[in-house]
Structure formats: C-alpha cells, structure tokens
Design a protein that fits this description.
Strands 1, 18, 19, 20, 21, 22 and 23 form a seven-stranded mixed beta sheet that branches. Strands 3-2-11-10-5-6-7 form a seven-stranded antiparallel beta sheet. It is built from five helices and 23 strands.
C-alpha cells in the first residue's frame, strides 16, 4: 500500500506530575505567617484525579483570611478567585470553586483540595494570607500528566485560525497545549515541522533534527513565530490530552467510514477521537499494527513496540494515513467505550 505514513513523534509528555513552589516575595523578605515550602514536591495529576495543593500556616494572626486564586497572565479582567476562607468558614467561587475544598488536615492547614481534574486546570495557583494591610503568598504550579499531539485540518496544512484550532483540539478530546507542555514534549523527543497554535495565542514548532525544510541550519529547539493575529493568521494546532475514563479497542475489517461507525455502535461504543487514541497509546502502551478509522475521518494506528513491518520507523508513536476517501473499504476501526 503506497500510503504516506506520518510518524507523530509525540513524547511521553509528563511521565510524572509535580507541584513546584515559588514564594511570591522579595528574596530578602521572610515569610511571617506562611510556612516556607520546600523547593518541590511530587503531586499526581492526571485528568479525573483529586489533588492537594499544599499551603501551611506557621503563625496565625488574630484576624486573617486565606485567598486561593489561579494566576492567568493572559487573562484580561478580574482575577480568577477559587476560594476565600478564614478560621471559621470558606466560600467557593467560579468553576474551579465548585470542585474545590480545604483539606483541613490540622488547625494550620490551608491547603486546597481540587477534585476531578480537568485539562484546563494546569497552571499556577496562589495561596495568599491577608492580614489587614499585610499579605504574603506562595505560588504552586500544577502540572497534569498527559501527551501533546499535532493536529491538522482534513482540508490540509495551515487551515486553522486561533479559535478554530481551539475548537479542533476540543473536538478531539483535548485542549490547546501550553508552551510549557510543548517544551517538555520537545525535551522528550517531539520533532514536528509544521507550526501550530498554542493556548496563549503564540505559534511554534519543535525540532530535534534540524533539516533544510524545517528552518534550515538553525539549531534544534522550539522555533517560534511569536504572537499571531488570532482571527486572520492560519496554522495547525498543538493539542494536549490526558488520561481517559474509558478504553479504546480495534475492530478488524475493510470498512467504509460509515460502516466503521455502525460497527462501533453495534458494540455499544462510538468511534474513537484522536486524543483518545493518543491517551490509550501514551498511558496504556496501546500497540496495533493496523490502520483504523477515527471519528474525525482520519486513519491512524498506535505503535508502542516499533518494528519493521509497522511503518519501519524506529520510534514509538501514532502513525497517520491522513484523511482517506470515506468510501474506501480498506481499514478497520478504533472504537471507544
């Protein structure tokens, strides 16, 4: 079969998740009320998990409140408050507040418990103790374990404006990746020659092996186009996804796209999304040397154990046959239930 097999070299991004602590104060100012945290601490953070962001009070002032917020530098408008509490009560705010509570492991514990983690929860959180005109805080960066994957329109290369890229990722069980997520994917092997939108509206592409068609003789790294016009400029997308609650499985056959959908439905399932296939490959080492239809009309297959007869490419990854004619009766189907 003379099909162009594209290796999507997606790194096993976030083989662990962590909460990194950065005291928000001048280097010379000692924390008076909050316990200075360690340099780092490991926190599990897959989608759907429950995590705790530590914040410990060392000395309680007579009157105080603790305010938890999520720091969003690119957001215009009011800060994203999650919860405000004092010694007697607490009040949650917004979408995050609905899934948040105080751990209260002891009298000095102001740690925030977040339930049912979502992809968008990754970021930096601030625990701030307010005592009249005095306040001090620590910042905690929550990282969610997941995988970054490039995504392209069925109509070809560079067809998405920013909003369309965001919607394309969401349709494939993902969200636009952050620069940090793309960077970590690059450090673990992601090499991709097409530029794509990121969550902050900038455009980049990661290169491990420099070559003439990918920036010439520039050294390896994250190539950046910087911020672009979100309405008029068009690129591909870098999406991020995490653990899935269901499972992906393959059904062999020679189906058209429509037949593939019926085949999954007969099994009480639906056609898998691209992000779901990547999650199965990344978290469960899903390995299937057969091209199969996905819900977006593309045909792909996941390889965890590279071998010659399965694309002949030495790296693990998700291979793609692109978007074949939907009337083609050649491929099986990947289902999700």
């Amino acid at each position: 079969m003379n099909c162009a097999v594209i290796l999507l070299l997606i790194s096993r991004c976030f083989t662990w998740s962590s909460a990194l602590y950065t005291p928000e104060r001048a280097a010379s100012k000692k924390l008076k009320y909050l316990l200075e945290p360690p340099v780092s601490a490991d926190v599990t953070g897959q989608r759907g998990d429950n995590v705790t962001l530590p914040c410990i009070i060392r000395t309680k002032p007579s009157h105080y409140k603790v305010k938890w917020t999520k720091i969003e530098p690119e957001k215009v408008g009011p800060e994203n408050i999650i919860m405000i509490s004092n010694a007697h009560a607490f009040k949650p705010y917004g979408h995050l507040g609905q899934r948040a509570s105080l751990r209260k492991a002891h009298a000095m514990d102001a740690s925030l418990h977040l339930g049912r983690l979502e992809l968008e929860d990754e970021g930096t959180y601030r625990c701030e103790l307010v005592n009249g005109i005095e306040d001090e805080s620590v910042a905690i960066t929550l990282r969610i374990e997941g995988v970054v994957f490039p995504y392209q329109s069925k109509d070809g290369r560079y067809r998405f404006n920013y909003q369309e890229a965001k919607e394309a990722c969401a349709a494939q069980d993902g969200t636009l990746a952050t620069y940090s997520q793309l960077y970590r994917a690059w450090t673990e092997g992601l090499d991709w020659c097409n530029a794509g939108w990121l969550h902050d509206g900038t455009v980049h592409y990661p290169i491990i092996h420099p070559r003439p068609v990918c920036g010439g003789e520039l050294p390896s790294g994250i190539r950046s186009y910087g911020p672009k016009d979100k309405n008029n400029d068009r690129f591909d997308a870098f999406c991020f996804t995490s653990q899935i609650s269901g499972s992906v499985f393959y059904i062999a056959g020679a189906f058209s796209f429509e037949q593939a959908g019926h085949t999954c439905k007969n099994q009480g399932a639906e056609m898998a999304l691209v992000g779901q296939l990547y999650a199965a490959w990344h978290f469960h080492n899903f390995d299937q040397c057969d091209g199969g239809w996905l819900k977006d009309g593309s045909v792909r297959f996941p390889i965890s154990n590279p071998r010659e007869r399965c694309g002949g490419i030495p790296e693990a990854g998700v291979r793609s046959f692109g978007f074949p004619d939907k009337n083609t009766h050649v491929y099986g189907v990947y289902c999700y239930s």
